[in-house]
Amino acid sequence: MGDVHYIVDKLNAAPFNMGVTLISFSEKGPEELLQLLSDVLAKITPKHQRQGGAHESAEQTAERLAGLLRIVKYQPDMDLAMFRQLLAAGDRDVVQQVLKWVLAQGQVLEKRAFVGYYLSFPDELLYHLEVMELREAIKGLHSLYCT
After folding, report:
1. Is 65 exposed, middle or buried (0-12, 13-18, 19+ CB in 10 A)?
2. Does domain 2-106 correspond to CATH entry 1.10.418.70?
């Protein structure tokens, strides 16, 4: 229960100010939990929020969130395919683990998301020789100037 208290306290603090109670948080269903996680991540990294208010399926939302979590170096404690499946289902334990990790990171995630967005490439480009060389050059510059 300590994790839930921590999450609720952080959600009620700046910059989120969500006015969530322990009871309202514990009563949230899977879709509401997934939306809450999406809202928290959008507050931290607005570049990754849902575009144009378009409706997404739970699978699309989970895919978008999993991509962002990969960029900010979140490491789930399970197989990635299982993580995405449980995330799409709005599994309470998975969403709480992610929220706890995200909320503990503070402003570090903003920087990681910004830098990570520009260091990530679409999977189909990762194996082109020029892209691989460019990516290594960018990583070298990042480690030189951002440490």
Report:
1. buried
2. yes
